[in-house]
Amino acid sequence: MDFGGINPVILIAGLMATSVPILLAALGEAVVERSGVLNLGVEGMMIVGALGGFVVAVHTGSPFAGFLGGAVAGAALSLIFAALTQVFLANQVATGLALTLFGLGLSSLGGQGYNGIKPPHTVGLLPDALAKIPVAGPILFGHDWVVYFSILMTAATWYVLKFTRVGLIIRAVGENHDAAHALGYKVNRIRLLCIMFGGAMAGIGGAYISLVRVPQWVDGITAGAGWIALAIVVFASWRPWRVLAGAWLFGGISVLQLNLQAAGSAIPVEYLSMAPYLLTIVVLVIMSSGRGKASMGAPASLGQNFHAAR
Amino acid sequence: MIRLEKRPNPSRFWLYATPPVAVLLTMVVGGILFAAMGKNPIEVIRTIFWDPIFGEFAFYLRGQLLVKAGPLILIAIGLALGFRAGIWNIGAEGQYIIGAICGAAVGLAVFPTENRLIFPAMVIAGAFGGWLWAMIPAILKTRFNTNEILVSLMLVYVAQTILAKASTSFLKNPEGMGFPGSRNFNTYPAAKNGYLIESLGLHWGGVAALVTAVLIYILLTRHIAGFQIRLAGQAPRAARFHGVNPTRLVVMCMGISGALAGLAGLFEVAGPAGQISIDFNTGYGFTAIIVAFLGRLNPLGIVLAGFLMALTYVGGEMASTNLGLPSAAIQVFQGMLLFFLLGVDVLTNYRFRLPAAAATAGAK
Amino acid sequence: MTGTGTEKGGGAGRPELLKISGVTKAYPGVIANSDVGFTVGEGEVHALLGENGAGKSTLVKMIYGLVRPDSGSMTFRGQPYQPAKPAEARRLGVAMVFQHFSLFEALNVAENVALGMESPPPMRELASRIRAVSEEYGLPLDPARMVGDLSAGERQRVEIIRCLLQDPKLLIMDEPTSVLTPQEVEILFKTLRQLSSEGTAILYISHKLEEIKALCDEATILRRGKVVGTCTPRERTAREMAELMVGTTLTPPERHPVDKGEVALGVSDLSVASPIPFGTSLKNVSFTVAKGEVLGIAGVAGNGQDELLLALSGELRVEPDRLRIASHAAGDLGPVERRKAGLVSAPEDRYGHAAAPDMSLIENAFLTGAIRRGLVNRGFIDWGKTRAFAEEVIAEYDVRTPGPEVAARALSGGNLQKFLMGRELNQSPSVIVINQPTWGVDAAAAAAIRQAILDRAAEGAAVVVISQDLDELLEVSDNFAVLNEGRLTKPVPVQGLTMDQIGLMMGGAHGMEVAHHAE
What we know:
The complex is a heterotrimer of chains A (310), B (364) and C (519). Chain A has helices at residues 8-18, 20-34, 42-60, 63-87, 92-110, 128-131, 136-141, 145-163, 165-175, 177-182, 187-213, 225-235, 240-262, 269-288, 293-296. By secondary structure, chain A is mainly α. Chain A is globular. Chain B is mostly helical.
């Protein structure tokens, strides 16, 4: 069952795992943007989460505690963004960029002394016997718990946004913050909570890179995953299931290019490793061409700060 | 509870006071960070901010300031132009790399010919390369409404891959005994961007930065194009009402910032760096974003901010060699500076008030 | 009519519902309300009458819990009443229909209603209740429709039904008729009377005197934040109430009949898609305006007014022949070229469209004056000349400002509007297009602006005034047309036009009357 040296079962199983970091980060950012906030600091929150998760996991020996640590680290960093944009009304684009630059520096500083250490192993959720079933085994049962968690979070995000009052309020605040304020909703407080959720999700995503994907600590370990997550949110028109589809598509491309490299493809390695970034651009072009902001489903207040004048 | 209240007029005092206050706050909080790392905060701050200008090795380090500030200023001015217009070119790092590769390629192609026109041709090629790389997000934005932040950023990663390829294959030094990296321009006089005044660290890149600062300042304050840039950033609908063509504005701003970043790359690769190598770029394209904001998106402010940021680089290296301060700490320090600037900036347009005070002030 | 600030009991012996006494609220530099007091009885329709800026909005925001008074007291149903937030007000039985800003275009009707309720039932149940209540009160509404796709009148129904689902004791309505056709106003009044007869009190905010006479039991008149009088509107003439509201007597603008010259602006069969999300596309719009003529274009908000202005100003380009300025094809010209050709325009939204709020008045003068006033020399701006132009406008149009270098946002709406009108009118234009010339402007300034427009027409300029204020249009226009769902009726002379005819031109009541006939 090989096609040009590539096994489709391994490819599918691989892409599900590869896409976890960007899926989690993009889900978080989708909620943040639905509430009307554009946080470009995803990359920074991810890498700080990657470090936080790694450090906690190494010291406690528990991968679960590590992921928790990643969530806390990501959320803590996002609090800086929340304070600057929601309290001090700073420009969201500039603050998001600052958050990324700061996060990269902070992780590089804090990560010194963690190079070359192996983190504890994150185990599979289901019995090994199930994973050994041909075809369905590796795809459906062979993953660690975070993969299932990421799919669960997709469903949960979708359900909350679409069917619950909390989700309705988040969408309302992102759609028209003046109206939401007039009805008595605390716009900035709701946004702050959304930003922290986004930070925690990015942090877990980052921790997955350092604890499972790599798994060790390397400077600049996220390598642009946060930016791809941001692109996927646009690609997905801010909808959770489409975020999943987008993340899997990118996961698929990444796994495919790695497999091609391993299989000794005729295409030079450098060009293959460009593929995810080029694909991001192509997809962005396809998604945004010929359509206005509204028809794409972008929240109408996206990127605008709210200040209750009177 | 303390409330924020919008000022009827932006405060001129805070417009100018914000950067110094942000620098001071960063020194205080940075000092606490350094202390937490077990360093003497006063000593670290002195090493970073004082020694490069007045210390023992200042005669050499002062020159290094302009070497580092030049590219930062050049790139930041271009970025500021776009940021003013609400056009977010975040990929200056990529434009810087491609500019360097294009410019270097022209020089290396004619090696070892000696001709006065070689360096000018490299300069043009460098600017052209950066311009071309910036045109990709610009055209995708105007033609397909694609987000320029994400596209220009993705292109940084692509440019880095091309850089790796260039230094290991197509621009590799044939006499380099298999090591990656191109020929060194220091051994090729016609293509070398040498020092004009060595003690000041002044090479053509520094000249270009200072001249650009003045030209862009005039453009922004006196020329209609500058007015349109400011208008488009502050009130996009009013800009269309005025008659600004958004497409032309995007192409112009992205083009200028790309060309300036490309120029910075060329001057760097033909001068201080000396050759195309996998890591000849030192993140100027990203640091320039901080410089642009720190300089309040004003060309003259950016010149000052560029020198300040260069100081943290040069001083940071000193602190790294002399005091063992990790170089990443400087990156954190720079990030903090931008945070404080963005936070303090609120005072330009808002003021803090106690509700009781607001009420009595209103009743008077 | 009592001319003092003391409160008066609810009319017709109704039991007291809401009592406000001594309420004061100040903002920096402005006293919004000073020692305001009045009483509303159960089931009473009570008018709050006053000009823009008289403090009506701040007052009702305090009643609705959005703003806290600095001093004074309120009682509601006999209990001390000081809502800290709207949710509390809603829980106690106070509901509010806003003039602006309270609907979410990308959400559907049911979701919009749910957001205004404390503990909404499940969506399916809510949808059926919306249907039931909307039928009962003659305001049919489909709960599943996207609010962005609704007309202005239908959007108002969403707000009203949102309130009615909570069984309010007091319903606050802030300028509800500004978005309605005359027939739709009749239907709304019928609904409000039905509510009143069922015991719901209504606090009705307006500056339209005829409406208040037709609907309200009692009226409290505000001027500059103070109560200047209370009265029973049915017993007073509109003129009496107007003089109390404004404080001075007003003179209508003078008209000098002029001979109409040749066509200065011609639009033929103009169709253009709206660039605004949920906007209205223009469909086959045709009209001509002669030199010296004023064409008034009426219509309910959201029927293509913004799009028409964009198409005339040059922000939206069309085929060359669709628009002619003095017989020259100009449809494909941008704003700069159209200004060169003699056409100036003034959009409705002052903060962000007609002016850049954070820029100085000097820079805002340059914004449109650059070409016709010759403020640019080889691409370089002559700031001295620009400042002189700004100062000229400030002096001539009585703009109250500390100087030309202050930011546009620092000016009050009326003052900024005077500046922006002056900026366009002082460019010796041959064609003038204005959307909402006096929206949110006090009566004296509005009269001055109308007079300035008429003066330019008398000098030979062709003028198009787009407005939602019918009285204003009837006052300034020679010819009158209505924009309805992107289509323009054939312009007709204003003289001899009746309100009924205008109502028919405005497209009637969009089927709203049907439900009432079914009662």
